[in-house]
Amino acid sequence: MAASSRAQVLRLYRALLRESQRFSCYGYRTYAIRRIKDAFRENKNITDSEKIEELLNKAKANLQVIQRQVTIGQMYATEKLIIEYPEDIQPRKASDPETTLAHLQHPIVPPRTETAPRTETAHAHV
Fold first, then answer.
1. Measuring CA to CA, which residue among 60, 86, 75, 87 is closest to residue 25?
2. pLDDT for res 113
3. Which residue from 14, 31, 48, 113 has the fewest beta carbons nearer than 10 Å?
4. Neighbours of 119 (CB within 10 A)
5. Which residues touch 55 (CB under 8 Å, ≥6 apart)?
């Protein structure tokens, strides 16, 4: 692959990834990034210049689709998913006081204590 062609492919790859990062929806964003990386990885060994040109044109068209979808997605933004806030939600260790049974919001009901003395009843065993 010629150096200018390689530079053009890398510029397009970075543009696709950069634009995909702008998706407001987590699912679309991760899918687009994964699909772009997979597609470029699949085609990295192609040396036929006509095939490369065809794939570049297809990628440019996909970039335009992504740009349109990002714009539409920003007009109808939704709340972020909990998975998108990893720095705010840290996994808790078992030794943390918040994870012990004593600190649960709904306390465990203690075992029943008897208030009246137990009376022995005689049962006839036959």
1. 75
2. 59
3. 113
4. 5
5. 43, 46
Question: Counting every residue, how long is the chain?
Answer: 126
Q: Can you tell me the distance from the alpha carbon of 87 to that of 109, in angstroms, rounded to the nearest whole number? A: 35
pLDDT in tens, 23-68: 988 999 999 999 999 999 999 999 999 999 999 999 999 999 999 9
Is the pTM here over 0.85, yes or no? no
Greater model confidence, 106 or 19: 19
Residue 66 near residue 19 (C-beta atoms within 8 A): yes
Cβ proximity of 17 and 36 under 8 Å: yes
Q: How far apart are CA 1 and CA 48, in angstroms?
A: 8
More confident: 8 or 87: 8
Q: Within 13 Å of residue 93, how many CA atoms lie on the same side as its CB? A: 2
